[in-house]
Amino acid sequence: xxxxxxxxxTGNELLxxxxxxxxLPKEEKARECGYxxxxxxxxxxxxxxxxxxxxxxxxxxxxDSKQPSNGRGGRSASYRISVQSNGNLLIGAxxxxxxxxxxxxxxxxxxxxxxxxxxxxxxxxxxx
Length: 128
Known about the structure:
Radius of gyration: 27 Å
Order of helices and strands: EHHEEHHEEH
Organism: Phormidium yuhuli AB48
Structural class: alpha+beta
Keywords: DNA-binding
Pfam families: AbrB-like
Protein name: AbrB family transcriptional regulator
Shape: elongated
Domain SpoVT-AbrB: 78-123
């Protein structure tokens, strides 16, 4: 079992201390800022992950994206796609979800000079 130093610096205090420590190795900076534990045998261990996470938080960098309400991640639609190396165009799930499409939905494809138009099969009958 180990105990964590309750005096570990955070926020602006952490940033100022790290700047003041200048050219010291990062492990020593972490130790000086309080990011170490002492085991029951008296061995001191530097906790680099807690130190680096505290630095990220102090800088105000948001690494965790906001999760949608259903708890699932994923990409958001950028409305741009590229031709893949095998010549395919992939329309991602972000678009099909936004359109409310389900597996098995069919489309007619009509090609223009530099565009593709998709018309859902059966869509004209449903609109009437």
